Amino acid sequence: MTRPLRIQYPGAVYHVTCRGNERRKIYHDDTDRIKFLEILAQTKGIYTVKIHGYVLMSNHFHLLTETPLGNLGEFMRRLNVTYTSYYNRRHGRVGHLYQGRYKSLLADKDEYVSVLSRYIHLNPVRIRAFKGKPDKEKVKALLGYKWSSLPGFIDKERYLGYLGSNLYT
Fold first, then answer.
1. What is the pTM for the complete model shown?
2. Are 21 and 83 in contact (CB under 8 A)?
3. CB 35 within 8 A of CB 135
4. Which of 56, 71, 122, 142 has its CA 20 to 30 A from that of 153?
């Protein structure tokens, strides 16, 4: 069975995710996360990609990206190869870090971006540890989660609005 073609065009917006091989960790500590974000910043500059949102979980990451040049494949290839090389050197390992290819979902820039951003930024409280917790506790955890772009977002109500009003102060 052949791989499906990736749709790429200038100005496209994508939800991109990549999971660790066998759902294993791809970040063991803050040093790994910092290095990933450094590589992400370098790579977005090289390929002129815009990052509208991200979250780093222990065994996967999510990106909300826009590709003014229609070059998602090249961008992701460099990001994943560079981080994998770093990770393997640092942790004395060889082989694949990620489970298959990255996944990318093409998004309608106007209608679906806020839904995707909400999904991405809520990831840290969609784990078992937060099941049944009050919304205020979830919002506090989200705003304190340093491996997400959420704390830097200006319009938090737009992205977390479904949790209720006045939870952001």
1. 0.86
2. no
3. no
4. 71
